[in-house]
Specification:
Layout (H helix, E strand, L loop, with lengths): L8 H13 L7 H32 L3 H26 L1 H14 L7 H34 L5 H7 L6 H8 L27 H46 L7 H5 L3 H56 L5 H40 L1 H6 L10 H17 L15 H26 L1
Helix pairs in contact: 1-5, 1-8, 2-3, 2-8, 3-8, 3-10, 5-8, 5-11, 7-11, 8-10, 8-11, 10-11, 10-13, 10-14, 11-14
Amino acid sequence: MSSKEVKDLSITVTSFYMKFVGFWLANDYVDKRWRNIAMSNTIFFIFVAITIELRDLYFTWGNFEDTIYTACNVATIVLVLLKTFVIFIHNDELLYLINYAKTNFWHSNYDSHEQMIINTSKRICTFLVCSFAFFAQGTVVSFILRPILGETFKQSICEKYENFQDVLICFSVNYGKNESDRIHPFNMWFDDSLMLSPYFEIVFVIQTFSACLVGTCYHCFDNLLFVINLHTASQFRILQYRFSNMCNINDREHYTTLERSSYTEDKYATFKTYVKQHQMLIEYCNKLENVFSVIALVQVTLFSLIICLDGYLILMVSSNRVSEEIAQIKRLTFIFHVMGCMCQLLMFTYSCNCLIHDSECVMNATYKSSWSPLPMDKYGKMLRKDLMFVMMRSKAPCCLTACGFFAVSLETYTGILSTAMSYFTLLSNNVTKNET
């Protein structure tokens, strides 16, 4: 099945970001060397980011709104750190999964109906992968832009404000200030020496790189899992199509002109190739489970908390005029963040649900394969017997679990949203009681 690889925007986008963080296939020694450099760079800047945010959390502890703001950032970076750590441990297995999919899934050796199945998966992958990447990178950009927005943008909005100083504070907090008053995208909590040139610029660049790499790791691994899951589910749908058309009833006239034994032997040989394909897909799903099950558990555990904190930061923060203008930028940031979380959660649960549904439907497709007209000779009896084994095996669908605790499906999506809403209600009620 290894034919010429075809172009796919979702795979191109995913591979670009995976290469950027150092977790993709390497063709030669030079590629391996650059991959190792990119991987080391990614791990270093993620640790820089978690160090900055944990220090910020320590110093803001006691100020409720600042603590919530920093805790949301910390939870996101912890999620990224754990995913990167797991992928680093299972890097060889991950590369095997990518190489197998590249060789056996992402090619053009399909008939018209099978190609239609693949094209449907491509369209879904392209839309959701690009949407998730947009929201994730939009979150990073909104974190970075507030201190560095230029004069042109300030002039375009200054007419909406009576006092230009409000615009200055809101959109370019470093503009017009001396070195001791400048700020970074993320709080550092050191002395004023970091605000002096060139230390300020160095720290600013480091924080920018850290934010970019955290944002990339936040979505690239999930994009890869989504693409692999959906294409694996497509392979199960293709297998259903092949099983259901294996013993086509229109072949009756054909096998009356041949020896019945040779016909059933040919059908049984075709059936064995489909069984081998089914076994390989099951083994592939087991390897997928081995790599991503811990990530699934971590995401299911933290998603409710992150969505709850995002909702609070968007809806519940209120302050005076100047602080409110500054808060609008934070609201924009976390609107991007919560939209990315919703898109990420949908991709994650939908692809896992497709994997469960399509692997289970192999049983029905096998039964509908028009096996009854086949003669009851040696190969006819063997084929009927083996069909039963395939149907029995398909009763246990392939799935991605959260470390074996439960299978991830669309029910997980509704469960996480329900839990996040409960957290948000409890948090808002406690805040209201404290204010009264």
